Amino acid sequence: MLQIIKGWFGGENKFERIWLLAKIEFKLRYYENKLGLLWALLKPIMDICIYYVVFKVIMKTDVPAFASFLFIGLILWNFFVESTTGTIQILQTKKYLYEYSNMNKIELYISQLFSNSIGFFFNFLMFLIFYNFLEKESMGMSLQAFWIIPIFINLFILSLGIALILSSIYIIAKDITQIWQVFVSLLFFLSPILYNLRVFKDALPTFHYLNPIAGIIINGRRVMMEKMPPDYGLLAWDMVYALFFFSIGLLVLNKLGAKAAEKL
């Protein structure tokens, strides 16, 4: 694994190339849409409206600042889903890039996640505006909000690791696409995206330590909405998860990805 990382960092102009690919990917995603970039902002807003009506208006949930509660949870969740689901077939759809150039396969994943990060940035900016200027129950911001940077890095590494694993499995088992879609649907309802944290912990004790996405969402809300530092134990545990999946992803890609162009 160390040899893989060392070999990747040994090249030149990698970050410039990755950033260029990320910008191209981001523009192409919305190129044919009439609303263009606005779709990147509308999707979480539409999701928030739906869940707000169901859980706040109909089910009368008692979560304070519920719209912002949903907002930050959904943009973190959507980044994870887009980064893992959207890269499952990347070795097939972009094999011309690594087959006919000196581009390393991992550059494809990083550029895809950077592209998703651009969308996340716009959504996060919308959250900041909404929470600080439109949310009636807002507690305002504090210096603890800067903890969102390591939390997002944690999410990025976790998503990258799982993306590497899923796309490598796709080389030998294309059914992984359907399996992952079902698993993601299950994971959505096993994460504290829609529920009060107290209710979530009562129903699934210690599960937030078994589900790294749950920990990331919990800490994201703590630092952005509650003026509190992250749960350091939970943050450390989630980082261990992220590094573990990333390590496994590198090893699996190195083993299965060598003949990806032939098998795909």
Automatic annotation (TrEMBL):
<feature type="transmembrane region" description="Helical">
    <location>
        <begin position="179"/>
        <end position="197"/>
    </location>
</feature>
<protein>
    <recommendedName>
        <fullName>Transport permease protein</fullName>
    </recommendedName>
</protein>
<dbReference type="InterPro" id="IPR047817">
    <property type="entry name" value="ABC2_TM_bact-type"/>
</dbReference>
<dbReference type="Pfam" id="PF01061">
    <property type="entry name" value="ABC2_membrane"/>
</dbReference>
<comment type="similarity">
    <text>Belongs to the ABC-2 integral membrane protein family.</text>
</comment>
<keyword id="KW-0812">Transmembrane</keyword>
<feature type="transmembrane region" description="Helical">
    <location>
        <begin position="146"/>
        <end position="172"/>
    </location>
</feature>
<feature type="transmembrane region" description="Helical">
    <location>
        <begin position="113"/>
        <end position="134"/>
    </location>
</feature>
<feature type="domain" description="ABC transmembrane type-2">
    <location>
        <begin position="35"/>
        <end position="256"/>
    </location>
</feature>
<feature type="transmembrane region" description="Helical">
    <location>
        <begin position="66"/>
        <end position="92"/>
    </location>
</feature>
<feature type="transmembrane region" description="Helical">
    <location>
        <begin position="234"/>
        <end position="253"/>
    </location>
</feature>
<feature type="transmembrane region" description="Helical">
    <location>
        <begin position="35"/>
        <end position="54"/>
    </location>
</feature>
<dbReference type="InterPro" id="IPR013525">
    <property type="entry name" value="ABC2_TM"/>
</dbReference>
<keyword id="KW-0472">Membrane</keyword>
<keyword id="KW-0813">Transport</keyword>
<keyword id="KW-1003">Cell membrane</keyword>
<keyword id="KW-1133">Transmembrane helix</keyword>
<keyword id="KW-0997">Cell inner membrane</keyword>
